[in-house]
TrEMBL record:
Entry-linked PANTHER family: 50S RIBOSOMAL PROTEIN L4, LARGE RIBOSOMAL SUBUNIT PROTEIN UL4M
Location of the region described as Disordered in the Swiss-Prot/TrEMBL record: 45-77
Keyword rRNA-binding among UniProt keywords: yes
Gene giving rise to this polypeptide: rplD
UniProt-recorded name of the protein: Large ribosomal subunit protein uL4
Lineage of source species: Bacteria, Pseudomonadati, Bacteroidota, Bacteroidia, Bacteroidales
Coiled coil location: none
CC per GO annotation: ribonucleoprotein complex; ribosome
Protein's UniProt keywords contain Cytoplasm: no
Protein species of origin: Hoylesella saccharolytica F0055
Function (record text): One of the primary rRNA binding proteins, this protein initially binds near the 5'-end of the 23S rRNA. It is important during the early stages of 50S assembly. It makes multiple contacts with different domains of the 23S rRNA in the assembled 50S subunit and ribosome. Forms part of the polypeptide exit tunnel.
Amino acid sequence: MEVSVLNINGQETGRKVTLNESIFGIEPNDHVLYLDVKQYLANQRQGTAKSKERSEMSGSTRKLGRQKGGGGARRGDINSPVLVGGARVFGPKPRDYGFKLNKKVKLLARKSALSYKAQDNAIIVVEDFDLATPKTKDFVNIVKSLNADNKKTLLLLPSVNKNVYLSARNLQRSEVMTASALNAYKVLNADVLVITEKSLEAIDGILNK
């Protein structure tokens, strides 16, 4: 699949690049995508929810009423979960929600996500560029020139570029990340994938190991 290379003004440069069929042209695996997205979202969870159980409550341990014959549930001290203000039974505890996925599964998930974008013609290749200073207005003009201003845009760079990152940081519908940090969730979450030429080379090197 050939894609025209554009400049940051949205004009064709006259060059074309061929998207690697083994990355952008495979049959997407939906189950693998589900597992990878599930892992990504699980890793975002803090897992810090905590409630006090009976042994952690402060309060008298005196038994408040007789064991039987009171007409209600049997309960002991004031910390009983039966009482209002008492402890919680089997409440949440701090935990790690993350789980392991094999490298080949994650690799296939990224290829599947990129193949979906290629099928939807939602990939734009631009020539490598830099911004002299961090300026949101300049980044907005680039996105508008690429006809992606009303869409969720993910820009992939070959390496960290502070000026470009800071220029896009305040934009709700735009995100900048390096090719090495690419993951299936970010690709699927974006409406348009903007890839620089060197980023395309980096993706080929990473996903064709």
